[in-house]
Design brief:
This protein has one helix spanning 66-82, and strands spanning 6-10, 29-33, 37-43, 46-52, 55-59. With 90 residues, the protein is an alpha+beta fold. It has one domain (6-82). The strands form two sheets. The protein has a three-stranded mixed β-sheet, covered by helices on one side. A two-stranded antiparallel ribbon has the order 3-4. The longest helix has 17 residues, at 66-82. The chain is globular, with a radius of gyration of 15 Å.
């Protein structure tokens, strides 16, 4: 295998919202990130503003199992939710 196998596309930086990323050969998956923004959500039976970012993953089913891709997405969201600026080392 040559070159990259996974791409991250961030349209959020230019104001893009939710989109469907397309896998480019020979890669097997692509993660699409949209622009984050505050939305009203219900948490503990209360409405509060939460910062949400649309994400989408597209993958080649001949190489990646759908369950594996779903677990990756769940783990990625958990990592985003637990990230703090203190975790960033410059």
């Amino acid at each position: 295998m040559k070159g990259g196998t996974f791409t991250i596309s961030n349209q959020g930086g230019i104001g893009g919202a939710h989109f469907t990323p397309i896998v480019n050969k020979p890669e097997v998956a692509i993660l699409g990130l949209g622009k984050g923004g505050y939305k009203a959500v219900v948490k503990d039976k209360k409405i509060e503003a939460r910062l949400l970012m649309p994400i989408a993953i597209s993958y080649d089913h001949r190489v990646i199992d759908g369950g594996t891709a779903a677990r990756f997405t769940v783990d990625l969201i958990a990592a985003f939710n637990s990230f703090t600026e203190g975790d960033l080392k410059v």
